[in-house]
Amino acid sequence: MKIFRISLLSLFILIFCFSAAPATEAKAKAHSSRSTSYGREFYRGLAKRRSKDRADYPHLTDEEFANFRAVSTTGMGRGKLYRSSSPVHPWGNRDLIADNAARAAGIKTFINLADTEKKLRGYKGFQSSYYSTQNIICLDLNWKYQSDVFRQRLAKGLRFMAHNQPPFLVHCSMGKDRAGFVCAILEALMGASAEEITADYLVSFYNYFGIRPHTREYDFVAHNEIRSSLAAAFAVKDISKADLAAAAERYLLRIGVPATDIVALRRKLGTEP
Q: Most buried of 16, 128, 195, 209, CB within 10 angstroms?
């Protein structure tokens, strides 16, 4: 009789587990579906919030309108690295502002993540720009950060930086996604924290879309854009718990940046004269 009671209890547990599992799985799928639905609506809404009209951004300076700024995270030397929207691509009516800001900052080396050299030279006004008088490398990067093509071209760009002089300007078209990822790699290499990297990345989303800290939109972008991208690149679960400087160095070595060039990058981006 005792054996029967134990068996009956075991049977009850098995029945409960099997009946609960589908409910738990369904709940998880429903949550995932809501997140996906939110993501789709979020990204669709961004395009409607972006404008080419300077008058639509009265709360921003001209440099902020062009998404132009110095990178000033921990370990980064003052006036060594800048990021912005394209100083030559006229897509968003920001090119002239970005070019003038680059001139004022004395940018010597441009890392163009978006264009081929042929496309770059085809932009109206390129020949008369400040941009055209400086050192430029065109990488034509895609948005597949984990692809071999992206990594090979990024390594080429970073080697170019190591052999040229600051101030550097990294840009794509908007200076938001590809430029944000590349700057995040360099910020991590120089010793920035996950919080600093995230905050700098999200400045672009404020400049274009008005997304502010401590909002659901801000947290969504932080998690689904820069934090997840860096975690995948650095092969870590949580960037806030990782040694980001060491992880960035391993990443650069893995994609083909020699150790001597990493030393040169750190020296040229650092706080030493």
A: 209
Q: Region 55-79: what's the mean pLDDT?
A: 98
For the chain, the structural domain boundaries read 54-269
pTM, full prediction:
0.86
Does domain 54-269 fall into CATH 3.90.190.10? Answer: yes
- List CB contacts of 154: < 8 A, sequence separation 6 or more: 139, 141, 182, 185, 255
Give the whole-angstrom CA distance, residue 180 versus residue 201: 6
CB atoms within 10 A of CB 186: 27
Q: Dihedral through CA 248, CA 43, CA 209, CA 222, nearest 10?
A: -30
Chain center to CA of 211: 16
Mode of pairing for the β-strands spanning 109-112 and 135-138: parallel
What amino acid occupies position 208? Y
The CA R_g of the chain, rounded to the nearest whole Å, is 23
- Gap between the Cα atoms of 60 and 66, Å rounded: 9
Q: Do 81 and 269 form a contact (C-beta atoms < 8 A)?
A: yes
Burial class of residue 105, CB neighbours in 10 A (0-12, 13-18, 19+): middle
CA distance 267 to 87: 26
CA distance 218 to 231: 18
Distance of CA 29 to the CA centre of its chain: 29
Which amino acid does the sequence have at 94?
A: R
